[in-house]
Amino acid sequence: MVQRGWKVDVYLICGFEKLLDSRREMIQEALPEGVGLQVWEDAIPMYYEKKFNGQLKREDQIIEQAPHGLSRQHRFVVRDKLMEYDFFTAFEDDMRIMADHVVNFLEMSAEIDRLRIMAESSPDGKVYVDDALEDKRTTRGKSRDKATVGNDVVQDPMTADDLRRLWPGFVRTEVLDSSISEHPLLSQSNIDNYKWKDNVPPSLGYEDEFGMVDPNACCNVPPGRPRTPANPKKDDLLLWETDISAMGVRHYPGDIGWAAAMTVEDRADIGSYWSGEGNVYNDSAMKRPRRVNSLIGQQAGWMASRSQILYFHEHACPGGFLPPFDGEDWFNDSLQTRNGAVEFWSGGYQMFGRCYFNRILSLDPKRFSKQLLYHGSNNKQRTVHTDKFVRFSHFLGQLYTVKERAIQSLSGEQQNSSQ
User: What are the φ and ψ backbone dihedral angles of 391, each rounded to 5 degrees?
Assistant: First the structure.
């Protein structure tokens, strides 16, 4: 980032009481010249543990530390520094965030905002796909949950409100570590026999037509570092945070083009063509996944400009995005939410679970590669069950298969029943 001429500062929020001077010096020496470093020590907040009705949990309840609240504390830094910086990134400490991630995010955000302005000024309040295909369908699907649209949205026009909810997403990735003795993903061939492969086989022709997943965008770390293999190939990038059953695709207006739609609250869904449309998974009772933890797509943080943060706080997010986090939307005490606190505050869950943003991943392999974030610990492949993993190159191929099916649905040759 510094090489691009950006002025960058780092804020380290620590749960322990004191950062040793030797550790601080080590961190400062690792940072590029000119990068500022500020440290908030002993940052774990204090609270009274309460019942769901707001009463103290015990009669002799005393104030105590809330370790689960450490992931919330970066919001106080953002609030205090909001007018001093143009852009903020807040991620868990083992995530590798590159300048290309930021630039791609800003480019996609700018295009979404441009389309929103166009919609606001258009006679019918909508923007359209320029090269939309003829839609010969005579009926449209209806939602089986609280969504206001069916799961068969391919190229529908979008309103300004739709575009306000559209957001460039991220997904964590790891690099397949072939140095692990008898790696379960390799020795048992699980990585090539992933879930839903037969239902949604990958269309790998995209690699010849549009390009390949680029591992250098996220994961090209210097050699010699433990746990992070050097010189990864496209097929080495692993996904475990979601799978094709939770995904949709849509042809969006403007330069957004074709993109994948990630999971979102049903009532917040602005529409896409679900991968399961037409009983693809051979289960007529299967509904589109919404709040299934294993399919949500953890991104381990968030990034946003100052103006975007103000929009979150003042308009999009019930109870606000910044402190003080009080009032009815927080049940008068935001620290009472203990389960999933890390994912909610620093993992990005608030944005798509409470603020109702619809995250998208571009189907352009170049942009798609810049929406993958390297989980630097590279340890999930050792701890997560093998049936959760798929190569990102194959996952993108599955998304292209869903795209092909979405286009075919426009012919009206088969009327799909929305799930």
Answer: -70, 140
pLDDT digits (tens, 9 = 90+) for 139-194: 999 988 999 999 999 999 999 999 999 999 999 999 999 888 888 898 777 798 99
Residue 337 · residue 344 · CB < 8 Å: yes
Q: How far is CA 39 from the centre of its chain?
A: 27
Alpha-carbon distance of 105 to 98, in angstroms, equals: 11
> What are the pLDDT digits (tens) for 65-102?
999 999 999 999 999 999 999 999 999 989 999 999 99
What's the token pair of residue 351? 């944005």
- Classify burial at 38, counting beta carbons within 10 Å of its beta carbon; exposed 0-12, middle 13-18, buried 19 or more: exposed
Give tens-digit pLDDT for 231-245. 999 999 999 999 999
CA distance 266 to 403: 21
Q: Note the residue count of the chain.
A: 419
Report d(CA 162, CA 176) in Å as an integer: 37
Residues 6+ apart with CB under 8 A from 356: 165, 264, 265, 267, 268, 316
Tell me the two tokens of residue 187: 């020795």
**Digit-coded pLDDT (tens) for 279-303:** 999 999 999 999 888 899 989 999 9
Q: Residues 369, 175: contact at Cβ < 8 Å?
A: no
Q: What angle do CA 397, 400, 404 make, to 5 degrees?
A: 140
Please name the residue ranges forming H helices in 12-165: 21-30, 74-81, 99-121, 160-164
Return the H-helix or E-strand segment holding 145: none
Looking at 105-242, which runs of residues are DSSP E strands? 126-127, 158-159, 166-168, 171-175, 237-239
pTM to 2 decimal places: 0.94
Distance CA 363, CA 259 (A): 5
**Residue 339's pLDDT band (cuts 50, 70, 90):** low
The helix (H) or strand (E) run that includes residue 157 is none
Going from the C-alpha of 374 to that of each of 186, 211, 219, 266, 289, the distances in angstroms are: 20, 20, 6, 29, 25
Average pLDDT for the chain = 93
Surface-to-core class of residue 171, CB atoms within 10 Å of its CB (0-12 exposed, 13-18 middle, 19+ buried): buried
Pairing status of strand 87-91 against strand 36-40: unpaired
